[in-house]
Amino acid sequence: MRVELLTVGDELLLGDTVNGNAAWLGRRLADHGVEVTRSVVVGDETDVIVEAVTAALGRAGAVITTGGLGPTYDDLTRDALAKAAGVALVRDPALERRLHERAEAVGRALQPMAFRMAEVPEGAGLLRNSAGTAPGLRVELPGGVVYALPGVPFEMRTIMDEVVLPELAERAGLPAVERRTLRTAGVWESVVATRLAEVEAMDGVRLAYLPDPAEVKIRVTAAGPDAAGRLAAAEARIRELLGPVVYGVEDETLDRVVHRLLAERSATVAAAESLTGGLIGAELTAMPGSSATFAGGVVAYATELKARLLGVPEGLLAEHGAVHPDVAAAMAEGVRARLGATYGVGVTGVAGPEPQDGHPVGTVYIGVAGPGYSPIVVSPRLPVPGTGREIRAVIRRMTVVHALELLRRALLGLDADAGTGDAREDREDRG
Amino acid sequence: MRVELLTVGDELLLGDTVNGNAAWLGRRLADHGVEVTRSVVVGDETDVIVEAVTAALGRAGAVITTGGLGPTYDDLTRDALAKAAGVALVRDPALERRLHERAEAVGRALQPMAFRMAEVPEGAGLLRNSAGTAPGLRVELPGGVVYALPGVPFEMRTIMDEVVLPELAERAGLPAVERRTLRTAGVWESVVATRLAEVEAMDGVRLAYLPDPAEVKIRVTAAGPDAAGRLAAAEARIRELLGPVVYGVEDETLDRVVHRLLAERSATVAAAESLTGGLIGAELTAMPGSSATFAGGVVAYATELKARLLGVPEGLLAEHGAVHPDVAAAMAEGVRARLGATYGVGVTGVAGPEPQDGHPVGTVYIGVAGPGYSPIVVSPRLPVPGTGREIRAVIRRMTVVHALELLRRALLGLDADAGTGDAREDREDRG
């Protein structure tokens, strides 16, 4: 079954509101094996809504609308659906009674426009709204069915889960589709995609790449007979091909993985930051319960603080400046020792937009210190995103991801850069 | 001029990505007086993109697409535009050279699929991308013009601002509309809206409220004859009615204002954080040039580190625990002294989702220490956003805003909570 989404509201076209409802619906439907093939936003105009609904039902068997069901005169979804069905709007006595009861319960008089919420296109079905006042509507049109839901996210989600999804499942005899998202860090999208070419060719398997700074999420979809088996086979092959760069699945973010690995070892980590300004600490404390695994951090932004607060040798700073692999190592070891943590992370580098002390933007050194070994240091090659203002934000975010990934590898005893696809792989590509 | 947006990508239909690009574009175009009349999302299928572009140009004079310009085989916008125009895809030698140069600069070989990014529909115009590798495209079709932009937000935004908006303005002869955004911190949206009722009634003036955690942006739009004069009058009255809660205009974020105020005074700040985990330091280093005003920070997440790293009296911590106004004051003073900064900020509190040591979620104390006075401490009333997972993120973000706002007020010698509309205003509301 193909479904289209229609979101109604001028505020979405003006960009005052981001269309989170469409994202939530797309995800929810995908999780239930229903394919959303198009998502449209239109403004508060009856004729435009009528046209959009009609066009959508020419392509798909069902349309889910959100918005335009409130009491004000720019809420026009009801009117549009009545017009599309060629019927009148009629006042539903039960809905009218409910409005009166609600108003009495909060001791307010009903405004005349409130009665609009008791009007429904003649013959429409009411979708029970256990989270609010106005129900959703089901309108059967020649081309298929329209489910009209309110724009208030909580109400929309409630009606969707309690009423619409069970109905769609029954109507559609849904195909077996299995999905899973694998998460990778520290490797480029093009490298991932090239390595996984053979998986893309597997029968009934589809891959989508969702890149973030220094991360790539791989969404694997398997359909048809034995979808679950196909998905498992695809995942197993992907893990063979990518090796240790796969750090988690589904919503298991890198900070969660690191938190879990630390908790399993009853270990803690401390962070010594410069260019990231505190973002590594912020990431390591995003999880509830992070006080069990994160001791604290030092942001040594001024160079002399690297010596004073972290014990980085002054001679090292004098000779090489702050941007140097040995400085990252000394920061990691220093913060670990001074804060009494099991592990220490240290980062130094150039976030831009200008080069610093002769080092180009994107030069970053990351050190991880731990029990029983000398600090590991990596210098990821960060691609510099142009010359715009957002360079700093992207370089800083990539640095956070690489730092957490190095910590994860240290915790698991993996090589610092195994599988990330660098010099060796490049040479193979050339040859 | 009517413009439609077309966003391309399975990940948007699946809800893996929220359509922030469409919201940004809608906003940007509205700010320039251009009306977005529809916004459509389709998946990665050439024929569907062709159909959607063609249908959009049947209704509007211009279409802006985002997404589908990357190197992988599911990036199909180029192919679709060539098909819609009835031309071939050709490889652009200058683009190809640029790809090689970029690859050499980072010491990597080009994957074969990367060359897709050098292909353009024959006759298409290239839109300069100063923020990335692949340019945008301008394709003239019978019904109007298509601007194809990458899906990576900062590249999309750069090309839009530098190339597309000036072109559209020239093509369209835009109406006289003046807009300005005033930024406030630490005050609730309902308080702002109630105070500004008389401005909403001013002739030809429209207000829109854009709330963020602990911030409200007020977008003032004036239209018609003497739009600039109307805008100035509205702004003046808003500033009278709101007083010191207006901290900046347009893209002058709170961290920029604080950075400027510090720089003007040749002063520096240091941050002592707990629940925010480093976010205050991260915010104070988001600006290029922040090393002149930000000394560094200490994230004392574990309670004993508050004593050891910041000199918070152990007796105070033993008696009251870590969540106490005197602890915030001592953290601010401690980090100021130990890092040798002009100002110190200290925050302690409960980010949730669970209460801590008997303090409810959202209990936050913020201290600012500076030269010649005892630390100021405030405890903003943070509204707890429901019971979901995002409580921590929102509480932490609100804490950052309140901390920067208190620092701004300290720098300007303003009262810590003048004009934020608390107990007194609530009483008036009740009465």
Automatic annotation (TrEMBL), chains A, B:
Domain called MoaB/Mog: residue spans: 4-171
SMART domains attached to this UniProt entry: MoCF_biosynth (SM00852)
Gene3D superfamilies attached to this UniProt entry: 3.30.70.2860, CinA-like, MoaB/Mog-like domain
Domain of life: Bacteria
CDD domains, sorted: cinA
Pfam families: CinA, CinA_KH, MoCF_biosynth
InterPro entries: CinA, CinA-like_C, CinA_C, CinA_KH, Competence-induced_CinA, MoaB/Mog-like_dom_sf, MoaB/Mog_dom
Family label: Belongs to the CinA family.
Record protein name field: CinA-like protein
Species: Actinomadura rubrisoli
